[in-house]
What does this fold into?
Amino acid sequence: MNTITIAHLSDPHLPTEMVPPRLGERLNKRMFSYFSWKGRRRFLHRPEILAHVMTDIAASGVDMIAVTGDLTNMGLPGECRQALRWLEQMPAPCTVIPGNHDTLVHDRWHQTVGLWQPWMGALPFPFVRRVGNVALIGVSSAVPTPWFLATGTVGARQAARLRDILRETARQGLCRIVMIHHPPVTGLAIRRKALTDIQDFATCIAQEGAEMVLHGHIHTSTLSSLPGPLAPVPVVGIASASARSCDPLRAAGWNHITVTPHATGYRLGVTRHFFLADATTGASQETIFELPSPSGCFSGVSTPA
It folds into this structure.
């Protein structure tokens, strides 16, 4: 079977000269995000940097782009429409999940995040999208929270569905890559920004397994792991795709992931591409993970449009 390639990016916080939200839209948590954008974040998330990232991804010729949330800054309908146009211009098939900034407050699904449903699988969350022998499993940890919090929650219903999906895709021998916005490893996010049911998620992975977990949220490129039933499960985070920084771990970037099946399992490779504020570009040395197959059989090929 052929190698499948995936571009993982996150938290583009699509840079825009935002029209101030209407009174009814800003008498809530969005007010703080608007002032944060106008005062500081618009200088940190730059359209020219995001353009460099997307040009690099386009040149790589990947099979799938995986975006782990925070396409917007306040989750306003206008921002979500802008994100829709951005998704329509993707240089490869794309799978997306929402982040906390996309769901700051309760709003109309079909006028906000629901606009991106063509780039998700069949809902409810978690959804599954197939590319070759890879199953991308989209979990949503994006829930509205009280002011001053940016926590995420998977919830019992979604966790139960995730168990079933992991078990079924394992039975099919697929390489299971879970997408979630909040980092599922303790200590990566401070308490007010962490996953509230992080132990429940970790227990699910420990019992059912996965071949990799992708996340964003903390605007830092990280590499960690969770216990799995057969071997540690790699957990890979990436910095904001539009971040202006001189720190290679916080500068804008994307992860180039390769998935190659072999007789006893999968070989996954991760190379991080980064773009510093001084226009310097670079790439990390590839990190290789040799993982046993969850099943002795491989199923057929199904590539989303």
About this structure: Helices lie at 23-26, 30-44, 47-60, 77-88, 156-171, 198-208. Confidence is low (pLDDT under 50) at residues 296-305. The two ends are 20 Å apart (CA to CA).
